Amino acid sequence: xxxxxxxxxxxxxxxxxxxxxxxxxxxxxxxxxxxxxxxxxxxxxxxxxxxxxxxxxxxxxxxxxxxxxxxxxxxxxxxxxxxxxxxxxxxxxxxxxxxxxxxxxxxxxxxxxxxxxxxxxxxxxxxxxxxxxxxxxxxxxxxxxxxxxxxxxxxxxxxxxxxxxxxxxxxxxxxxxxxxxxxxxxxxxxxxxxxxxxxxxxxxxxxxxxxxxxxxxxxxxxxxxxxxxxxxxxxxxxxxxxxxxxxxxxxxxxxxxxxxxxxxxxxxxxxxxxxxxxxxxxxxxxxxxxxxxxxxxxxxxxxxxxxxxxxxxxxxxxxxxxxxxxxxxxx
Amino acid sequence: xxxxxxxxxxxxxxxxxxxxxxxxxxxxxxxxxxxxxxxxxxxxxxxxxxxxxxxxxxxxxxxxxxxxxxxxxxxxxxxxxxxxxxxxxxxxxxxxxxxxxxxxxxxxxxxxxxxxxxxxxxxxxxxxxxxxxxxxxxxxxxxxxxxxxxxxxxxxxxxxxxxxxxxxxxxxxxxxxxxxxxxxxxxxxxxxxxxxxxxxxxxxxxxxxxxxxxxxxxxxxxxxxxxxxxxxxxxxxxxxxxxxxxxxxxxxxxxxxxxxxxxxxxxxxxxxxxxxxxxxxxxxxxxxxxxxxxxxxxxxxxxxxxxxxxxxxxxxxxxxxxxxxxxxxxxxxxxxx
Lengths: 331, 337
Hints:
The structure holds two protein chains of two kinds. Chain A is of the alpha/beta class.
């Protein structure tokens, strides 16, 4: 039941759509690289897990989604947030613990959410998201919105009971759900080649009676194509799909991880596999987008990230009056 | 001989000495060695807390990394404990109990009773609790009251490197399931710890400081917060007695009651949220058993009834500090009918 997709054609995307995709991926990359630098200064509190290297997954999937659709994310959630349209400045302010942040400083990096955008939150619990997505998909199905739910989870979460139960339930109920297993090679420091007993996470789809697909996660077009098919099937009542996206995490499990368990694969991936480099090469070679337009996006994104950091640092922190609010709607 | 070592090192030493002493002791958890199947260093992490670093090579085959499957490996530790091993499982953050709680509270905790006294489940679940590292709502909770609530579990909350080592060794040798709660802001705290192996018995509170004016019962990291408050209070002539229960289950009620009978005043300091926590539990005990000795209403210093906030500005307000403890002591000392 598992198919490996070859690099797909991009006939569905016109120049503007390609530029949007590039902008999203570039924004995620710039956001994460900047956080990596800022974290080293000691100014960013708490635990930060970066998504750099994995941009094609969030972008390739979320480009098909709109406000009817919900996604659930992981502790490595910044990329999913950006791809689903969460305000970048509010995200940065949240990570800095400011009152102007997406969650008013109460959530932090691991809990950024924007329900108005169908972004159910990054998640501090491995495997926390997939069951929730069964719920959003059930709601979409009951209400007949045509919406879908997408659960992003890692290779680590692919071994959690919650994830496996959710996939079974989604299939039993024929829910409009898509399970995107982002296999970046490591659950913390543990290799997925060790922790996942099957050859591929996607192989498990057969056990849950749904199609399983493996895609090259560094190839935006491959992800985009696989997601198009799964999302269309879900919207048309055809039930869930498991998509395994394979790539390499560019940074450590968390910022500060010394990564002594790794051996050079990041440098190789950055040089030879990188999703942004490959995207740029392809769309400029085919003449779909001029290099100058991509350069302009790069500059705009750099300015946006600069402004986001500057504004976050200048923004006020929450105060004592905020400590006990928002626990309940009414109490 | 005592040397000054960290809370982290004290825990690691306890594990190593027990693994040396007893072949049935095994250690398991996520990245407890670290780097399984990876191209670089093995034993790369020693757990996310670094507590188990070095054990992997020293005790071949007895330090097991696990997939991120808490129900499976915590359950496996429990099952192995029923079958002759003494597993020490690491549940990385206490917050993750949500993923595997059934194995702990419906299985491990109940075997002995349900099976008519025939089962023995000598498992230790080491887990990290507490706020202060800006780790936010799902990685910062002080959930030991939930475990304390469950008959059949023993619950340990060590307050210093010395306590950590002696209590962990006791936990491993204990024949019942033990939840061992380590505060995440304490791993680098240092203190005098004997090099030789030693145990601290369960259910025997430590009297950390003597005093006649007020009894402060403090849990885990709150013991050091209470000590800081006591120093401050001594300057204004108020002498606090500080009691560290060490284990919330079993609870040394005798030492607490004796102290309150002497001081007539009680402040309980508990980092957990205020409903059904150790502060309410101990306050109820004292209100019932030492009512006649009380010269003022009991004060409880706890976190507010909220999840743990992320922003440092809020988290610093959330965690009980020495000033709040001192204020509570002043309230009970100055109270007049």
